[in-house]
Amino acid sequence: MKLWMKPVEMICVNGCDGKIRPLKFKWIDEEGMPRVIKIDRILTVEEEKLAGNRMLVFAVQSCIDQEDRRFEMKYETKSMTWYLSRM
Predict the structure, then answer these.
(1) Phi/psi of residue 29, each to 5°?
(2) How many CB atoms are located within 10 Å of the residue 53 CB?
(3) Could you read off the pLDDT of 20-68 as tens digits, one per residue?
(4) What is the rounded CA–CA span in Å between residue 7 and residue 63?
(5) How do the domains of the chain map onto residue ranges?
(6) What is 34-76 written as a DSSP string?
(7) Under a CB-based contact definition with an 8 Å cutoff, are residues 55 and 49 in contact?
């Protein structure tokens, strides 16, 4: 997996219990084209601190071009920003 840390636009659901569930995101690929990726499965959710910033790390799976791909998405709680961390 390549390390990216690119900010993305995310659509997510915030549950009544306070948990966040990402649904799909939009990012600009290597060719400069916008792509919308639907998240099919959330594999794990962990919490980490990066340079003192609390982040939620989501390991997710999506089907892209008939191939299952795994991603790592990070949500920075202080700035409320989503990142495509690894692909």
Answers:
(1) -80, -175
(2) 13
(3) 999 999 988 888 899 999 999 999 999 999 788 899 999 999 998 889 9
(4) 21
(5) 1-54
(6) EEEEE--EEEEEEEEEETTEEEEEEEEEEEETTEEEEEEEEEE
(7) yes
Kindly report the pTM of this predicted structure.
0.88
Do residues 74 and 83 lie in contact, with contact meaning Cβ atoms separated by under 8 Å?
yes
The bridge status of strand 81-86 relative to strand 34-38 is: unpaired
Side-by-side strand order, sheet with 34-38: 34-38, 20-28, 3-14, 81-86, 67-76, 53-64, 41-50
Q: Which residues have a Cβ under 8 Å from the Cβ of 80 and sit 6 or more positions away?
A: none
Alpha carbons 85 and 8: distance in angstroms, whole number: 10
